[in-house]
């Protein structure tokens, strides 16, 4: 996990915006302005551990390192790099919020499609709350 905007820059991030970094065993939200040099004022702005919230931090960073091609089931994970608050269950793929309120989720995935196929190929990921679809992304 990166620990600064400069780390993010070194691993290839170029878009200005909000990012999560690790600091002293926890996860912090920062704004990175990659149009500036790392030494310039305003390159990195800390938003803290729970910006505009009244709850304790709950963060998770999980990875799947095996092929997954099942549809309409939760994605389970093999690796849990961060699980602050113990709200994510690797075996079920479920996140259980310890409190009511707003949550921010970020997802990155890699889809591999065959070079030739008679079928229209697509990848969809849905975000469900208590069994009801609240958001979906397609490629």
Automatic annotation (TrEMBL):
Keywords carried by this UniProt record: Secreted, Signal
UniProt keyword S-adenosyl-L-methionine present: no
Location in the cell: Secreted
Top-rank taxon, per record: Eukaryota
Coiled coil: none
Cellular component terms per the entry's GO annotation: extracellular space
Record protein name field: Contactin-associated 2-like protein
Species of provenance: Daphnia magna
